[in-house]
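Deviations from the work plan: none for this task. Representative record:
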Amino acid sequence: MNLKQLSELLGLSQTTVSRALNGYPEVNEATRERVLQAVKETGYRPNKAAQRLATGKAGSIGLVMPTAPGHQSDVHFGEFLAGLGEEAVRHDFHFVIMPADPDDEVAALRRLAVSGNVDALFVAYMRGHDPRLAMLKSLSMPYVVHGRSFGSEPDYPFLDIDNEGAFYDATRLLLQLGHKRFALMNGPMHLDFAIRRRNGVMSALAERGLALDEDCASHALMTDEQGLLAMERFLQLPDRPTAILCSSTVLALGAIRAVNQAGLRLGEDISLIAHDDVLPLLKPENFSVPLTTTRSSLRAAGVRIAQRLIGTVKQAGPFPDQELWKTELIVRASTGPAPQQR
Amino acid sequence: MNLKQLSELLGLSQTTVSRALNGYPEVNEATRERVLQAVKETGYRPNKAAQRLATGKAGSIGLVMPTAPGHQSDVHFGEFLAGLGEEAVRHDFHFVIMPADPDDEVAALRRLAVSGNVDALFVAYMRGHDPRLAMLKSLSMPYVVHGRSFGSEPDYPFLDIDNEGAFYDATRLLLQLGHKRFALMNGPMHLDFAIRRRNGVMSALAERGLALDEDCASHALMTDEQGLLAMERFLQLPDRPTAILCSSTVLALGAIRAVNQAGLRLGEDISLIAHDDVLPLLKPENFSVPLTTTRSSLRAAGVRIAQRLIGTVKQAGPFPDQELWKTELIVRASTGPAPQQR
DNA sequence: CCCAGTGCCCAAAGCGCTTTCAATTATGTA
DNA sequence: TACATAATTGAAAGCGCTTTGGGCACTGGG
């Protein structure tokens, strides 16, 4: 069933039917009713590809999903998507997801953009000096970046959390508790958030004349395995750290396993603060020792970004171009005073 | 840059350029080279919406993602998507994801199908007597169902795991270990896999003249909270179960927390077998007591379904219509002989 | 020398929709 | 009663692509 058939059925022109459906004012209310009724009966749905071709809009936002045979799926991605979806469903938007090899993201993004079947782009996994920014700017298509790109001029629309502030505050708390030996379990160093969090830690330490030892910084994929490995390394250090900053509750999961296996007690021998993206699966309060965290909901960020993206496409009012969300520092049981000097 | 411009630039007709790009034989090799070269220089990409409109194909597979403000995002969904994506990227396919209220899935699916921007559909979260099947059959669009629909004629293309067999085997193992009092922590009862797993447990029990007590069966969302709550309930039973069958490692996570909080030892006081979808975050071997599991990779299922879907769209050879994968029963430390009668 | 066959290429139709421009009828106003 | 004005509706162009149905220039066998 297409427009033509529907209009013939109704004895109207395609024009009128189209107008009736799209809420144009110049159509008689009685006629509109009749059209709507017929749509209900026939189950007619406009062909999106045709609509897109005719209007240039298609009610879809595009994103690329990094994936590869060895590539471990990322819980953060799913959670973020849920947030986007929550908002999208309210506006009858959908997503076009282009899977792409992680090394091919910039090309994939360009392909997606020029493919002509998305109205706006969402970009994540930002890196320092991210090469995608230049491309996006040249594109004349709305986009919002989740995160920022360290080292690039901040002249692009983004939503980010204050990673540096979060880790600065967390570090200060641990300092106040008397800790002197710190370690950082971070995400891959090329990612923006990792750079900023590291900076946050280092500047808090610097204020006390401390530095972050190279041996005490791990930059790796945020999986529980990597958390385990990193923590094992830390614990074997001659002068092992007593305070751990951790970029994700996923890493913390592995880290805590290592702590337990070493027979140490979390919150006493070792204090740990993790960043909490509010993953449904990894609630800090459900850890055997509830985790002190810096918190910011990934899902809420998804909702907000979808709002901005969709709002822009629909030309609904101005949106702030750049948002920086504060995180909350929530103290639970995984932090405690520094143990007495051995 | 569109076809028209490109062809004018080359002094060729749109026809020839189009043919050159799509690998038709009736175009001079030299001409084709010239076209390809121009494409490289101009960065021309065909408009997907126009292609779709003209050909009816667009290289995309559609799926609906259940989502709602309160709706907890599902790790299983993300993991499955990763599998789909891994295969899709090889064929330059993408996804169109329609977010939808969980109560609106059948309508959302129809909208997606008739929207005309997907070539095939993937359907999950199957229920008993699933109403979507009838709709899908009437659609004349390729689709593959992940799972099955209990109570419906099995005359549709699906890929499923042998849920009944898995839980039958798991139950038998526990019976052999001497357990007499069983409990089942399952997903929502309207879902197909939950029905079959339950049946598997019950038929194994029935062979020994045992039955599954109503108090010892929990059907709820597969979250760690629900796992915790269910297990707490089980443990308060006057004659508490010693053997637990668990539909997900996510549920197991909560369940084990309850076991620990009750001061009981997993694998001794309580034996537990969970189904393992091979989620990267929840490796059974990484639990404090490594989990005995029935295993089947969700991601592998995603890859396979994408193969079938894409293969069908591309008319590449026949694919089996129905696949039932066996699961593996992997014994680790969470199962042990039934404790002596108290 | 003629004609069927082959190799290449093009004009134009059509996919299903939106939107401009124009036509027709109804409604007031002078 | 006559004419400007508003209220509805339609015809047709166009979005960017694929594909059908020719057309033209060569070849080579008869």
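Chain A has three domains: 3-42, 60-161+299-325, 163-297.
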